[in-house]
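Progress note, sequence design subtask.
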């Protein structure tokens, strides 16, 4: 009898936990008309709550809506790659960081914010160390 009650409680706990996780990663309805800074703030808020998929949606909105704002694009690309790194999705993270670094090889690269290049290089080095 006790084993049955424990099993039922464990099953209920697992079901509750899975429902919370699925709600936390539900797609965000990214409102139209938000500025890049507002999108960044919402993405950071989602990241603080470990809602990485929601954060990525806000960063992706920057890439889709403001492709000519090079500073915000660099920030969004870096943050998406960094989220992948935090999730231990190293192949995706590396691809994102290398794509970002390719921007710094283009003609007008001196106008790009330097911090994202430096940070991407540092995280790539960490990934290589962690793989060993």
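Output:
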């Amino acid at each position: 009898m006790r084993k049955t009650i424990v099993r039922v409680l464990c099953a209920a706990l697992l079901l509750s936990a899975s429902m919370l996780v699925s709600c936390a990663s539900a797609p965000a309805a990214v409102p139209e008309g938000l500025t890049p800074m507002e999108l960044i703030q919402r993405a950071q808020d989602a990241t603080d709550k470990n809602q990485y998929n929601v954060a990525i949606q806000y960063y992706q909105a920057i890439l889709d809506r403001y492709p000519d704002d090079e500073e915000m694009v660099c920030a969004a690309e870096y943050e998406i790659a960094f989220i992948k790194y935090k999730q231990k999705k190293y192949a995706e993270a590396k691809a994102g960081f290398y794509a970002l670094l390719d921007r710094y090889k283009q003609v007008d690269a001196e106008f790009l914010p330097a911090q994202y290049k430096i940070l991407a290089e540092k995280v790539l080095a960490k990934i290589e160390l962690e793989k060993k």
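The radius of gyration is 19 Å. Work on this subtask will continue into the next period as scheduled.
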